[in-house]
Inverse folding.
């Protein structure tokens, strides 16, 4: 637990460091007399898991912990507002363009955020670096479909979580909530077909799978299985060997 605490504390320190850096920047803008004329956006490229789906201090899934991003925008003349609707990160760029008085290009997937609106009906999320997985965020639910588990033995082909009541994704509902699981699967299948028809390109997820799965795990299964057996986790070694026998 001391090691876990050190991970959490280290992340907190990183956040504090970023806060201080932002404060330094804002103070400098104020000293220059331009703070009230400057739009400032604070966001990030991904979230970080601290136990969700068995991942610690990393971002290996297409899940809530990895894909729920902060976006704080301060702009001249804007009153404080909070938007809780589902939005893509692409929508932030479209929003900024619109606020600048520029027409959002028609070919963009992002669309300006309506602060008072409900947001999108659903989001489709992808992970092709540390695993091959897509998620669908809709209502209170997160549906996950996995093609390569990145050697997370307890991940199954399909998983379902109620993010509202279970934000840390501890209880898989795939076997107990058939209606939500079917809805998530249907959204993902329709989205995939639509994207492939529109782009007329091969699915990047298929390319990663054909190349041998996530880059960071390629050619490492044998050594990882050896480590699992040497550290009292032979059961998970057996699971991975059976699931990925073609990689040995």
């Amino acid at each position: 637990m001391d090691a876990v605490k050190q991970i959490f504390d280290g992340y907190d320190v990183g956040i504090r460091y970023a806060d201080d850096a932002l404060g330094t920047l804002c103070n400098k803008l104020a000293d220059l007399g331009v703070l009230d004329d400057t739009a400032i956006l604070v966001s990030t490229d991904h979230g970080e898991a601290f136990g969700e789906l068995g991942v610690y201090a990393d971002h290996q899934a297409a899940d809530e912990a990895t894909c729920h991003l902060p976006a704080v925008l301060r702009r001249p003349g804007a009153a404080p507002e909070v938007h809780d609707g589902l939005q893509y990160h692409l929508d932030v760029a479209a929003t900024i363009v619109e606020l600048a008085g520029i027409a959002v290009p028609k070919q963009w997937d992002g669309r300006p955020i309506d602060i008072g609106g409900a947001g999108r009906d659903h989001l489709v999320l992808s992970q092709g670096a540390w695993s091959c997985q897509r998620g669908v965020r809709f209502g209170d639910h997160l549906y996950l479909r996995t093609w390569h588990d990145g050697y997370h033995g307890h991940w199954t082909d399909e998983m379902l979580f109620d993010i509202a009541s279970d934000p840390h994704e501890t209880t898989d509902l795939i076997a107990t909530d058939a209606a939500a699981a079917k809805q998530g699967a249907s959204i993902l299948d329709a989205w995939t077909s639509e994207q492939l028809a529109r782009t007329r390109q091969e699915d990047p997820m298929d390319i990663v799978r054909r190349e041998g799965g996530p880059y960071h795990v390629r050619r490492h299964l044998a050594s990882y299985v050896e480590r699992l057996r040497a550290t009292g986790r032979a059961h998970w070694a057996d699971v991975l060997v059976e699931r990925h026998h073609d990689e040995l």
In short: DSSP finds seven helices and eight strands in the chain. The mean pLDDT is 95. Helices lie at 2-31, 64-67, 89-99, 178-199, 204-211, 221-230, 234-243.
